[in-house]
User: Fold this.
Amino acid sequence: MKKIFLIGISISFSVLAMSQDFTFSQFYEMPLLRNPALAGISNADVRVNGAYRSQWGSVTVPYQTQALSMEIRFPIGNANDFITTGMQITNDIAGDSRLSRIQLLPVFTFHKSLNDDYSYLTASVMGGLIQSRFDPSKLTFDDQFQNGSFDPGNSTQQVFTNTSLSYGDLSAGLAFSTVTGDDIKMYVGVAGYHCLKSKVSFYNTENTLLKRRYVINAGLNLPTGYNDRVYLYGDYIIQGGNRQFLAGALYKHNLIPDEDEDDELNDLSLSMGATYRWADALIPVVKLDIRKFYIGVSYDVNLSKLSAASQYRGGMEITGGFKTNLYVRGNAGGGAGGNRRGGNESYKCPYF
Assistant:
């Protein structure tokens, strides 16, 4: 029975490995999970994002996912070039066995200025350690039932030689970002995840490899009026023969218009919109920006084949974060993207 269960655990993890990685409904708030090269493409030099997601509670043990990303961006040399360093941390837990996966992934990103019009080419690498484990004590076995009653002490299957595994992971990405004279901001990017194709089976005789994931990203941020903006996002993902399309749209209204339209870090604003996972879920989103802080809330309306069992209920997701600048923002260097280094020397930066 132990061997059968181990094979089952291995198959379960193999299914996870062969299918697509988890994605957040507010996917635009987790840039490093979309593309490492999106690190530093922000209207702030320091950015911290967090997310918590609980889903499928209506049909099974809830799947829980937490993530935290941290970025810091600073200029190098005499040109308008930048580097961004940071860390992506995630933890997801699934099922009765508490099958979990913890990721610790440092990131390094280089932003190369292409011209004086706020255009940048960004290259990035992200790599680190992933650990996965499960808890066999949370599971019930058939031989624990004797004469129609359950005897938790009658167990010969709860001793396992391998309940955890660790492996390295490496990802890389490219992105192009620009800001037009009409204050329209946009970016496009490509990324590849799990370049090492690490072994991810708990069963020693299996050679299951983590499937590579390829992503195409796009974002558009445009003004629609005085201190109001529209944000559009899109990701197309390929992994292990599976395809997924994510799209999002938010309308942001500044509740207290600020005299400096370009300094979004001073906004008190409300954003409303929705994201969509193709053939899976429609997700209403509400976001509140309070100066340098924000909080977002969304709820999945399940549209997949599981909708009958879930009664269209997917999962609640909460995001939050903090942004700030290391340098005094000023008009030197060309307006919207300009920061000031020491008051005299100015530089520009990519931001969204």
